[in-house]
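Notes to self after the Tuesday call (sharing in case useful).
The group wants a holo model before anyone commits to mutagenesis around the pocket. I volunteered. Ligand is iron/sulfur cluster. Logging inputs and output together so the record is complete.
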Amino acid sequence: MITAGIDMGSRSVKVVLLEELDVNGAPQLKYGVKKAYIMMPGDMDQDVAAEKAYDEALAEAGLKREDVSAVFATGAGRKQVAFAKEGVTEMTAGAKGAVFMYPAARTVVDVGAEEGRGMKTDAEGKAIDFAGNEKCAAGAGSFAEAMSRALQMSLKEFGEASLQSDKSIPMNAQCTVFAESEVVSLIHSSTPKNDIAKAVLDAVASRVCAMVRRVGIEGEVVLIGGMVHNAGFVSSLKNAMGVDTISLPDMPEYISALGCAMIAAERQH
Amino acid sequence: MIANYGYKDGSGEYYISIDTDKCIDCAAERACLTACPKQMFEIIEDDYDDQVAWIKKPNCRTLAYDCADCKPSSGYTSLPCITACTPGAIKHSW
Ligand code: SF4
Ligand code: SF4
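Result:
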């Protein structure tokens, strides 16, 4: 059986096509990812982007729509996926996917472009506690990106630069607009770029950490979402959370789509 | 599930947490819906097809202001939502 999970984020559509394998009649479910596909919609309408991403993923996997038993959607724009049979929240999908990748995971931190959240999960990958920050995106990737632009760096360079710093400069501003002017003041006071980058990523990590602390840190910690690619942020998050290791999946932006496809498979039984 | 709705900003941490397991067979006849003068609670179907309470999206960004009239400085000794929810599903972080 093949199912699809579509994660309709604010900046990108992620599609995972999952095949449930019957391993010699073994009772446990086994899955194989048939195709993981990402597409940036740009200025495309979300519903059009979802259709396009799904069709392209199917074509690359050599499948037709009728081969797929169920399509489930997640993410902020999940209601835009008109052809999805059901929608599940980012918490439910993210926890499911993270525990599939790391069975000992009990704390899942999801930091994407526009939102960050912390979740506690049980052994089955069911989210049992979650907290986000509904007010602003200062605990998410777009905030770090805006600040890296102020330093005329790419987000990747920004992360690498922060790793070169051992300074802790507290940033007081709570929103992107004020933080940007704080960064400009640091530039004018000739603060090294590395130290500014670390200050920004420490600030993002501290906001994310506040959400995670609301649910409590337990068991293995897994970070999912696009910010996994930013080594500076990962280091800042470890410090903020006071943990030695954070598990980082290879394809972190697909974990919610993967969890979504798994839930779709489970609900066909 | 314990669902925390709200935010942290420069002035503090403002979250309302709802233990949604207690909402499934609500023993208070959904009293949160009528007790809140700002009508911030709403019943939704969660990912497991259960009917549970949540805080309406726009209020999640303005909790500190929305709840100010109910807080002790405004003369209340207990919060209407917490008093009405006899199963004890609702908690405030501030
Ligand atoms: S919050 Fe309390 S009163 Fe409202 S539905 Fe849940 S258990 Fe019932
Ligand atoms: S404190 Fe008052 S306004 Fe805030 S949720 Fe409770 S009843 Fe509603």
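Two things stood out.
Chain B has a mean pLDDT of 92.
Strands of chain B lie at 2-9, 12-19, 41-45, 51-55, 90-92.
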